[in-house]
Write a structure and sequence with these properties.
The structure holds 2 protein chains of 2 kinds. By secondary structure, chain A is largely without helices or strands. By secondary structure, chain B is mainly α. Chain B has 8 helices and 2 strands. Chain B has a two-stranded antiparallel sheet. The chains are: A little secondary structure, B mainly alpha. Chains A and B meet through loops of A and helix 1, helix 3 and helix 8 of B.
Chain lengths: 10, 212
């Protein structure tokens, strides 16, 4: 899935 | 956190340190695009407003604070401290040509129509093209100081490593973000021409100059 809920990258 | 992402972040930190050291040691920001640095300051500011809304890790928060702080420190060095050495005559790329399309695209192509998310999306699009004024400046003058080319190589490597990180995350964590990936690929492609010249010239000890 396109996991876009959390942006955990910088 | 995987090795590619860690090395990517390390490369990003290195780029910023190289940039600040170059300005500080040479007492000059000649050859640097203030407009690209303005774009990066906007990128970090709009992306990291989530510092206030979501916590990922201490590493993540510290890195965000450092990126925001260093981007404004760089602007201070270019536009105030060493303004006399700033190459404004050659730094003429119109930032609105990047800001407006990125803002419009963020409004159209996003994951969720919500303020923080739209700012994040805008920052992702803007980062992908933020280096264009710098590349434009180099194309106008036809050359770059060796240390400036090291800066650009570090910055480009950061994005290249992030692509490896996304490939890894796709296979290992089944995680992917199409907006980040497509913008990141575009960003990396913009560096390819530079990478070629960097490897063929600077690594061999020659000055970075565009082919006549």
């Amino acid at each position: 899935s396109d996991s876009s809920k959390e942006h955990d990258e910088l | 956190m995987n090795i590619f992402r860690f090395l990517g972040d390390a490369s990003h930190f290195a780029a910023i340190i190289i940039l600040v050291l170059k300005i500080w040691k040479t007492r000059s920001c000649a050859g640097l695009s203030g407009r690209s640095q303005i774009a990066f300051a906007i990128v970090f500011t709009t992306r990291y407003v989530d510092l206030l809304t979501s916590y990922v890790s201490l590493y993540n928060s510290l890195a965000k604070i450092i990126f925001i702080f260093s981007s404004y420190a760089t602007l201070y060095l270019i536009y105030f401290r060493f303004k006399a050495t700033y190459d404004g005559n050659h730094d003429t790329f119109r930032l609105e040509f990047l800001l407006v399309p990125c803002a419009l695209l963020a409004l159209i192509v996003n994951h969720r129509f919500q303020v923080v998310e739209l700012l994040w999306t805008f920052s992702i699009y803007l980062e992908s093209v933020a280096i264009l004024p710098q590349l434009f400046l180099i194309s106008k003058t036809g050359e770059a100081e060796t240390i400036t080319s090291h800066y650009l190589f570090s910055l480009g490597s950061y994005r290249g490593l992030y692509i490896l990180n996304w490939i890894y995350r796709y296979y290992v964590q089944n995680y992917y973000d199409l907006i980040a990936i497509s913008a990141g690929v575009l960003q990396t492609l913009l560096y390819c021409d530079f990478f070629y010249l960097y490897i063929t010239r600077v690594i061999k000890g020659k000055a970075f100059a565009l082919p006549a």
